[in-house]
Amino acid sequence: MSFREPAWRVTTRELEASTEEERGSGERAASYLLSPFGGRLNRVLVAGTLSPAEAVGRDESQPFWRARLTDPTGSVAVTAGSFQPRAMAQLRAVTDPRPALVVGKVHLYRGRDGTGYVSLRAEALRSVPESEERAVLAEVVAQTLDRLDLLERLAASPGASEESLASDGTPRLWVRAALESLRRYPSFDRAPFRAGLAAVIRRVGGTASVVPPPPPAPTVRVRRDVPPPTRTPPSAAERAEEALVLDLLDQVAEASLDNYADRRELLARVSSQGLGGSRAEEVLTRLEEDGVVEEPIVGKLRLSERPS
């Protein structure tokens, strides 16, 4: 029986701040984005104002759409393609900014210079009244504060057992995620994030703007295990090409039986998005040289597994 990951209630700021990954082993193993605020994120639920979507790529037979969801703490890119036909149709239907709920899987793209870009691949989304958006944001705040409190308890009592913490009703999943969060982010300052939740609380109370001013594009620094060789920094166009290839690689791998992306199928899909065959090969080769993508089986690609 397949296990469906729970949808963590999170803010976009939590997604922006999450820079550590955990990749499972075995066939079709789930991947997680580890949050400094006690989340072990695979599927998430976010609430906020969704912008009109725009088409990415030029081949209408292989559509791919992108929008942004903004809440009082920041914003995150929301995407959907032909592998998510229902979500893609829902995303395309958004023609003006409106309150919405989005459920999807998180994705972290690592640039060659160590910059991380978090996006959300939508599984389902819908427009909602402001009252429902505020109700979900209230749930987000409550769960987030509970997780922050758990982190403080664990930091103050490092010897506390999982059983004793779970005995008071704290989900074991939260306890394990919090322990891993403290291990992966040993010096992270969580106080500003807790203070920043005040903006969400004001939105819940109806005193904040429905459409907050758009924040700058989210960028976070990701620790690299091996310093990259000195080279000319990638241009914005090269970054966009790499992001497209990695996103399509994820989609092809998720749809496969062995959790690998077939090289020929990936190149065909990339080419259908307007990136010519030779150029697609160059981008893919660059990603392999940088250790972002690997080919453990001839003709089969996957994102490289990095040590914890």
Outline the structure in words:
With 308 residues, the protein is of the alpha+beta class. The chain folds into 2 domains: 215 residues, Nucleic acid-binding proteins (OB fold (Dihydrolipoamide Acetyltransferase, E2P)), CATH 2.40.50.140; 68 residues, Arc Repressor Mutant, subunit A (Orthogonal Bundle), CATH 1.10.10.10. The chain is built from 9 helices and 14 strands. Strands 5-7-8-10-9 form a 5-stranded mixed beta barrel. α3 runs antiparallel to α6, α7 crosses α8 and α7 crosses α9. The relative contact order is 0.15. About 6% of the residues have low confidence.
Summarize the model shown.
It is built from nine helices and 14 strands.
List the helices and strands and how they pair.
Layout: E1 7-9, H1 12-17, E2 20-23, E3 31-34, E4 40-41, E5 43-50, E6 54-55, E7 64-71, E8 74-81, H2 85-92, E9 98-110, E10 115-127, H3 130-156, H4 162-166, H5 172-184, H6 191-204, E11 220-221, H7 236-255, E12 261-262, H8 263-272, H9 277-289, E13 293-297, E14 300-303
Parallel strand pairs: 1-5, 8-10
Antiparallel strand pairs: 2-3, 3-4, 5-7, 5-9, 6-7, 7-8, 9-10, 10-11, 12-14, 13-14
- Whole-number total of structural domains: 2
Low-confidence stretches: 210-229
What is the CATH superfamily classification of the largest domain? Nucleic acid-binding proteins
Structural class: alpha+beta
Largest sheet: 5 strands, mixed, barrel
- The radius of gyration computed from the alpha-carbon positions, rounded to a whole number of angstroms, is 20 Å
